[in-house]
Structure formats: C-alpha cells, structure tokens
Design goal:
The chain is of the alpha/beta class and about 240 residues long. About 35% of the residues lie in helices and about 20% in strands. It has helices at about 5-15, 25-30, 50, 60, 80-85, 100-110, 160-170, 185-195, 220-225; strands at about 35-40, 70, 90-95, 115-120, 135-140, 170-180, 200-205, 230-239. Strands 1-4-3-2-5-6-8-7 form an eight-stranded mixed beta sheet, with helices on both faces.
Length: about 240
C-alpha cells in the first residue's frame, strides 16, 4: 500500500470516530421503536453472564420463518435497506456498534418502514447473546475498518475471535460475504478465514470491473470507487 493511501485511510476513519455527536442522540434512538431492536449500553458490561443474554424471537419480530441475514458494521444503513428491498423473502438485521452512526439508518427505516429489515446497536463480539446458534444464513462484512497497524489486528472483524462468533451463528451451509477497498485487510482476511477452516470462493480483485451481478453499493464503496480504488470481494463458507 502506498504511504499516501495509508494516511487517507487513517484520516477517514478518525473522522468517522470523531463525528460530532447528534443532538438528543439516545432520545431519538428510543423513538425508533419499529426499526431498532436493542441498544447495548454501558449497563451491558456490568451484567452477569446469564443476564447478558437477550435472544431475539425472530418469529415474533418478523412474523415469518424466512432465512436470516446479518450485516455487521452497517454504517448509515444504505446496503441493508437496499438489500432487504431486493430480497423480500429474507429477514435482514443490520448491526452497528456506534450509536451516533446507526441513528441515521434507524431514522431512515422509520420513514421507509421495511418489513424485513431491523437494526441492532451492539458490538460484533456480543452477537451470540442475541441470536441462537446456527440461525444465520449469510453474514455481510462491508468495508470493515482495516486497522492497518499490526498491533490492532485483534480488532479486525475477520480476526479469529470474531470468526468464532460467526462460526457459531452460521447455519450448516452459511456464508460470509466480504467487501473492502483495502488490499492488506483483504489478504489478512483470506489468511485468517482459511486458518479458521473456511473455504474461499468467488474472489474478485476488482469487483466493479468484473462480471459479478447484483452488487449493492455501500456509502464507503461509492466513495472509494469514485477515487479509482479497486473493490475486493470474496465469499467464505465452512465445509
């Protein structure tokens, strides 16, 4: 990676993390009753292990038994809402740990009122407290923060501690779909997934110049592709 690309990535993610807190943030989140399933606040970390479990009744939430897809790190919700619209026979729950970011997605969903898309404000490592084992058909990891510094690799969403969570959640034939603009993160993810027992398929090193059909762009994807950066994509599954 060129040094200039490295600093662009760092500055971009710093700007996201330092985003000015929205006015009346939690009051507005609490009003998103139709779209937001749960807010994982500071009290979560004071609970006992048993108290942390808040397993969702998906039949009650969606009034059907359609397959469940998760997007982890959904940002402002563009991918989740568009994907749900294109796949009406699937239930999609979009996860984002930053409350200041997920608010935009939830307020948009409150207006659009999708029947098959909900949001969850929590950390990815805690997903097993909310979903039953082997209940998720697909997991989407779209433009996850690459944490370029090697000492921060345990924060990457394809590090083995997160893969253990995904392995528990995925159905027998479940898949992980990953997209990123960061070559280093992509290479790390392939190695990490492979070492953890995942098989890799449908790899693209330049998604927008490939013959792949049905791509739904995220906010980050539009930004990075407009800068001429190639988009990397893969699918992973357990054999």
């Amino acid at each position: 990676m060129l040094l200039v690309d490295f600093f662009i990535i760092i500055l971009y993610y710093i700007s996201i993390m330092r985003m000015r807190r929205k006015s009346n943030l939690f009051e507005r989140l609490e009003k998103c009753n139709d779209s937001l399933l749960y807010i994982e606040n500071e009290e979560f970390f004071t609970k006992t292990e048993e108290e942390k479990f808040h397993i969702f009744d998906l039949q009650e939430i969606f009034s059907n038994e359609n397959p469940l897809w998760l997007e982890i790190g959904c940002g402002k919700g563009q991918f989740a809402l568009e994907t749900a619209k294109l796949n009406p026979n699937v239930n999609l729950i979009a996860v984002e740990k930053i409350s200041n970011v997920i608010l935009t997605a939830c307020e948009r969903a409150e207006i659009e009122k999708p029947k098959n898309c909900k949001f969850l404000n929590c950390s990815a490592e805690n997903l097993c407290y909310y979903f039953k084992n082997q209940s998720v058909e697909k997991i989407f990891l779209n433009f996850s923060c690459p944490y370029p510094k090697y000492t921060y690799r345990n924060r990457r969403l394809t590090y083995h501690r997160f893969l253990e969570v995904y392995k528990r959640l995925l159905t027998k034939n479940g898949e992980i779909h990953l997209k990123t603009d960061n070559a280093g993160f992509f290479e790390f993810s392939i190695q990490s997934l492979s070492e953890f027992g995942f098989k890799i398929k449908n790899v693209s090193l330049d998604l927008h110049n490939s013959d792949f059909l049905g791509n739904v762009e995220t906010e980050y994807e539009k930004l990075f592709s407009s800068q001429g950066k190639p988009i990397y994509r893969l699918e992973a599954y357990l054999n």
